[in-house]
Amino acid sequence: MRALRHIAAPMLALGAYLAVAAATPLWTAALGAAFPGETRILYPDAAPLELVAQHLELVLISSAISIAVGLALGVFVTRPAGAGFYDVVNDLTNLGQTFPPVAVFTLAVPFLGFGLRPTVVALALYGILPVLRNTVAGLKGVPAEVLESATGMGMRSAERLLRVELPLAAPVIVAGIRVSVVVNVATATIGAIAGAGGFGAPIINGLVNLAPAVTLEGALLAAGLALVLDALLGGVEHTLASGRPSAV
User: Fold this and answer.
1) 8-state DSSP, 161
2) CA distances from 93 to 34, 62, 113, 130, 237 (A)
3) Structure pTM?
4) What's the distance, Cα to Cα, between the start and end of the chain in Å?
5) Which end of the chain is more exposed for a tag (fewer CB within 10 A), N or C?
6) Cβ neighbours of residue 67 under 8 Å, at least 6 residues apart?
């Protein structure tokens, strides 16, 4: 139960966020009061909770790909067989991070069409670097004497990785995942230009139609989701750090 104390508050915050997103009349009343002269108050094509679902789909799929690729590459370049590829892998992931997501959309749309797929590709490329860097830092930060002890106990390299290195590196790795996911929440708003929906849809719709209330709807939903996911993953990070073993 003590291990859950770090994520209890973020889970309650997530529930509160979803409850507020589901309360469409509340959004109408609040934004209507903030912009009394506006006729367009909410995004007309989807309720706030629908926008949350669309945005979460983008973030969760792309983040899952980023985590899988970043973790795999991080493990690979910290093994003897892959150590020589570290600079190449790091340069490629740096390129993926610095390449504008809009440019990735432009290149991907002719091959993947509009909608979810080009957006996921752009977000996944953008989110690999924090996971990769923290995986490498976490694995390289495992004390040498711990690794020697594991080897002395007869552990093979794969067993040592799974039972010793990854558990010890987990808090650092989760910190990288936390950065990647929160960045994806913000960057995913650009997916609206490819027809992927999410919070970018009301933001762009409001800008095009000079409807600040609609733009603010998307911005508030995006900011709220980023804060909640950051707190939730921060709680997971603290939980792992507090239960982190110090030796084999």
Assistant:
1) I
2) 43, 15, 24, 9, 24
3) 0.89
4) 24
5) N
6) 127, 131, 177, 180
